[in-house]
Every structure is written in C-alpha cells, then in structure tokens.
Amino acid sequence: MTPNPVLDLRGVRVEAGERVLLDLEAFQLGAGEVLGLMGPNGAGKTTLLRVCLGGERVAADRLRVLGVEVTRLRGAALAALRRRVGYLPQLLPGRSELPLTVREVVTIGRTARAGLGRRLTRADAAVVETWLGQLGLRALADRAFQELSGGEQRKVLLARVMAQEPEVLLLDEPTANLDLGWREELVATLERLHRLSGRAAVVVCHEPEVLPPACRRVVWLDAGRVVAAGPPEEVLGTAWARRLYGPGLRVVHERGRHAVVPGGGDA
Amino acid sequence: MSAGATPWCREVAMPDLVFWAPVMVGGTLAGASSGLLGTFIVGMRIPFLGVCVAHAALAGAVFGGLAGLEGTQLLGPALAGAVFTALALGMADPRRTRLDDNTVLSFLFSATMGLAFLGIGLHGVLGRSDHDVRALLWGSLAFCRWPDVGGMLAVALALVFYAGACFKELQAILFSRELAEAAGIRARAVWAGFLVLAAATLTVNFQTVGGLMIYSLISNPAAAAFQVTRGCARTMVVAAALGAASGLGGFLIAAATDLPSGAVIVLTSSAVLLVCVAVGRRRGRGAAGLARPAGRNPSNERDGAAR
C-alpha cells in the first residue's frame, strides 16, 4: 500500500462492446515514483493512461488522480485536473498543415495554465525557454515542428509536457519508432528530468531497454489485467524473456538498465 | 468587366470610382477575412468546410423561403443553417463517433445538400419562385454595395477579435485537438466558437461576393502562406495579406483587362499559391518535412543540455 498515491485505481473496468480492455483490481503510483507499465500490444496500457485522463467511459470503485475522483468529472473540473497531468501520446500529432515553430509547440504547455482569454506572461515565456534549454532545443526553437526528425519531435513534445509543470507524467511509449541513438538519448533525458523534477511518472513501453534507472517498479499487463508487479530485476527475468520471446535469450540488468540479449543461463 | 468597354485603369471617372469603391473594399475584405479563416481551416485539413457551410446556408435559406421570408430576410435562416452545421461539426467527438472530421463534413454536406434540393423541389411543387434564395447565396462581387461591406466588416472584426482572444487555444487546437484536450484546454468549446464565427463569415461573404471566389480565397492564400513563412501569428497575417492582395489585385487586373472580376480573383489567388510554392521550394521550406531524412541534428547537441 502506497501512502498518498498520485494514482489510486481500484476495481477499474473498461469495456468496448463484448471486449474487456481493462480489468484492474488495484493499481497505484506513489509520489516521486517512476513506474514502468509494460505488456504486449492490446494489453490495456494506453487505455489505463486514458482512464487516468478521464478520457474513457469506465466503471470504477475508485479512480483517483492526484487525490481527485475522476469518474464524475466533466467540463471545467476535468480540464482543471488535466492541467496537472503531463501526457505524452504514443503517436506524434501530425494533422496540422500549419508550420508551428518548436517554441510555439512548447508554449502550448503553458496555454491551459494561463486560462482562457488571458495572455501568456513573461514568466510563461521564461518557463518555455528553460525547457527548450533543458532538452537541448534552443537551436531548433524557430524551426517548424514538421521539419524535425522523429527523435527531435519527441523531445519537443516532452518539453511541451514539462513546460506544463505537471504533477505527474504519463508517457506513452516515449521512444516509439526511434533508432537506438535517439532511444538512448530519450532514456537519458527521462532519467535527468526525474532527477531535476522528482515528479512521479508512468512510462509505457514494450522493451525493458527503455526503462530509465529511476524506474524501480514494473507492472506487467496482459489482457487488461496486472499479471506481475515488482522490481524490474524480478519481473523482467530471463524466464520472462524466454516465455515471451522464445528460448536462447537472457536478460542483463546493469546499473539500473535492463536489456534482452541472446545467450543461455540467467544473468 | 461588365461596366463599360474602356479599361478602368486608363480612364477613371469619379462616378466610376464611387461605384467601384465598395466592390474593391469588399473584395479586399473578403480576401483578408477568408485568408485568416483559411489559416485555421486549411491548417486543420478541412477546406471542405466552405462547401459544406454554403450548402447548409442554402438549405436554411430555402426553408426560410418556404416559410414566406423574402430578400435579405433569408439571411437569418441561412445563417442559422450554417451555424447549426458548424456546431454539429465542432461538437462531434471523433473518439466517440469514430469518424474523422472530413467524414463528418461529408455526412453534413450530403445531408444539407439533400435538404436544400428537397426545399427547392418543394418551391416548384408549391409554385413559388426560388430566385431570392439563389441570389442570396450566390451573389456577385460586382453588385457589392456599402451595406454589404458593413456586414462583411462586422463579421470580419468579430472573427479577428475571437482569433486574438483565443489565439493560444486555437494554436494548441491546430497542433492537435486531442493533445489540447488532454492538456486541460477547453478545446471543444473554443473550436465550436470558432466554427460558428467561420460559418457566419462564410455565409455573409457568400451572399456578397459569390461561392467560387470564397472557396479559392479560403484555401489558396492560407496554403500559400504555409509555404513561405512559419509560426502561427505570422502565418495568419501573411494569409490575410495574401488574401487581401488576391481580392484587390484580382479586381484591378480584371478592371484593366475588362475580364470577369470573380474569375480573375480566383486565378490571381491560384497564381499567388503557385508562386509561393516555387518560393518555398527554392528556400527548401515547402517540402522540408518530407525531404529531410530522420536523424540527429548536430545543432541539437550544441545546447549542451541534451545528456
């Protein structure tokens, strides 16, 4: 039992027609904790994040985010809670043809905080500049978002989330579709951001390599249910890798990082 | 142009100027407001909105005519039809309906067109003339007078005020409506408000300067601005300026060459887009998103905060 959990879900069930997308007995995220949320495709990872944002029709005994019961929230009250939650989506938004600059995209993180009809202040601009700098984006600040590579766009969206100054981070596959170099850069960035801010975070991922060293607990979902939870070294053992991906694999745990590699024997 | 055989720029008489001044101001205003609207409509990839709103306004006017309204009285039901349709699009939640905005627009377009034709058919059945309805919706710039310009100016000012007051929210919605909602921005309400104003602007412009011209002035100046500039505010200003230039420039070319003004304005805005595409390609701006290979940017590392 976590004292004063940031996320506190009990008896949460999400259905789409006959299909059960999520069926959680209990799920918690502690203050300052970085939690790895893993599982196969369709396990319910993204649904869980959306439930926390109040974006799903859900039956729940308890669904508290930052101490607020989400299930009955609508309109302004839901928007107020969402301002406190930083959400990085799995898919990059690519609908707009408008060439927004990197600085403008990061500034979106300040929009809801400022309030409808109110102008952004110098303090807001300073926060934006801080996160542009923290994520190494100052040289790209006046470039159009669409002109950037996938890795750069991920960092811009992460800067947008951080500029929002959220109390909890929900990061949905932050390294999706990135090459090894960019993946490592993003993992290092996540670790550094946690050291800087100490904010609680849920990191959704498929590979253990994506978990930053700050992640000391992993929850494994399958078919909407929690099937394993605990330290990465316990949940993501060699037996786990072989059961999922076949024999001839083992998991290496080193300096807080975890990797599946070919080879016999346990590491 | 229809007014006289002597090209207007060579021999300008004061009575001509008095007659053509509202036409020029109307064309400029229609271009500027449509260019500003286009920044959002093209930015959200829903240029079809113009066609859809036109038919919704037509349906409203047709049923207003059936109810016994005449002349400018038809503007009321036309506006109601356009605003109702825009609100339907704005309030539709893509996640709940599982329909893309363009699919919703397609549904609304076919439904409002069906209603409009049904109403026109009923005019025939009941032996009534639908001349007023057609004249209201498919006006001509050449007949634009100062009261028309006043109406256009009023909705244009309302649009500018709204875009200014909700600029940061609209910018966030343009980037991603879903992300804006997830960040606690009242995206649906702000977008619905914008669509209502868009419907009003389009309806007033349609009945003053004609449909074809408005379609071209919504999409061409905005698309042209996207090619040569970046940043939301700058793009809005450039799109409005290119729209105004297309409206006024097209009219002056038409006057000088004695050609139909609406057609020349449409072609002028098309030419502006082509020129801007060429300029954008020359600067490596327009196709940059497609041409640039994914990879790390050395400039990115120089900030020193990357790791």
Please give a structural write-up.
The complex is a heterodimer of chains A (267) and B (307). The mean pLDDT of chain A is 90. Helix content of chain A is 32%, strand content 27%. Chain A has helices at residues 45-52, 75-82, 102-114, 122-134, 150-163, 180-197, 232-235, 238-245, and strands at residues 7-16, 19-29, 34-38, 62-65, 68-69, 85-88, 168-172, 200-205, 215-222, 225-230, 249-254, 257-262. Chain A contains eight helices and twelve strands. A six-stranded mixed sheet of chain A has the order 6-7-8-3-9-10, sandwiched between helices. Chain B has 307 residues and is mainly α. Chain B has 15 helices and no strands. In chain B, 51% of the residues are buried. The interface between A and B is large, with 61 and 50 residues.
Structural topology:
The complex is a heterodimer of chains A (267) and B (307).
Chain A: E1 7-16, E2 19-29, E3 34-38, H1 45-52, E4 62-65, E5 68-69, H2 75-82, E6 85-88, H3 102-114, H4 122-134, H5 150-163, E7 168-172, H6 180-197, E8 200-205, E9 215-222, E10 225-230, H7 232-235, H8 238-245, E11 249-254, E12 257-262
Parallel strand pairs in A: 3-8, 3-9, 6-7, 7-8
Antiparallel strand pairs in A: 1-2, 1-4, 4-5, 9-10, 11-12
Helix pairs in contact in A: 3-4, 3-5, 4-5
Chain B: H1 14-43, H2 49-66, H3 75-91, H4 94-97, H5 101-125, H6 131-137, H7 146-165, H8 167-175, H9 177-182, H10 187-209, H11 211-228, H12 232-257, H13 261-283, H14 288-291, H15 298-301
Helix pairs in contact in B: 1-7, 1-10, 1-11, 1-12, 2-3, 2-5, 2-6, 2-10, 3-10, 7-10, 8-10, 11-12, 11-13, 12-13
Summarize the structure.
The complex is a heterodimer of chains A (267) and B (307). With 267 residues, chain A is of the alpha/beta class. Chain A has helices spanning 45-52, 75-82, 102-114, 122-134, 150-163, 180-197, 232-235, 238-245; strands at residues 7-16, 19-29, 34-38, 62-65, 68-69, 85-88, 168-172, 200-205, 215-222, 225-230, 249-254, 257-262.
